[in-house]
């Protein structure tokens, strides 16, 4: 049952991620992946905060945290895009992208936990 719950959530997350990739944007800087990862970080923070606060079942937590958030975030794509920026000789842009992704997504998780734990 847990595998099906995670798979269903993952399908939803992947569809949402793909939908963001359809936004028309032409530039070397991979802003759509950065936005997706930031939204995913905020979402997982909200899920964790709400699941603890409301004592969610294991399946509900797996559906949202592992399934939806796991299917939605794009860390593997982030890694590939950072590597691609280095390969096309844009090391400063690559480093900015890496720093922004890590810092903003950590802050996103903190923000998600904060807003979900407010009374």
From TrEMBL:
A Pfam family the protein falls into: CRCB
Binding site for Na(+): 70, 73
Membrane topology (UniProt): Multi-pass membrane protein
Keywords: Cell membrane, Ion channel, Ion transport, Membrane, Metal-binding, Sodium, Transmembrane, Transmembrane helix, Transport
InterPro entries recorded: FluC
Regulation: Na(+) is not transported, but it plays an essential structural role and its presence is essential for fluoride channel function.
Coiled coil: none
Keyword Magnesium: no
Domain of life: Bacteria
Compartments where found: Cell membrane
Reaction(s) the record says it catalyses: fluoride(in) = fluoride(out)
Family: Belongs to the fluoride channel Fluc/FEX (TC 1.A.43) family.
Described purpose of this protein according to its UniProt entry: Fluoride-specific ion channel. Important for reducing fluoride concentration in the cell, thus reducing its toxicity.
Identification of the protein by name: Fluoride-specific ion channel FluC
Native organism: Parvimonas parva
Gene (name only): crcB
């Amino acid at each position: 049952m847990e595998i099906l719950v995670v798979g269903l959530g993952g399908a939803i997350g992947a569809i949402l991620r793909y939908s963001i990739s359809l936004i028309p944007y032409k530039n070397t800087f991979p802003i759509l992946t950065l936005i997706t990862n930031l939204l995913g970080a905020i979402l997982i923070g909200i899920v964790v905060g709400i699941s603890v606060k409301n004592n969610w079942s294991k399946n509900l937590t797996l559906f949202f945290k592992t399934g939806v958030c796991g299917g939605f975030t794009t860390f593997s794509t982030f890694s590939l895009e950072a590597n691609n920026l280095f390969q096309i000789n844009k090391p400063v842009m690559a480093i900015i992208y890496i720093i922004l992704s890590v810092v903003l997504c950590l802050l996103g998780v903190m923000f998600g936990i904060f807003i979900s734990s407010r009374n």
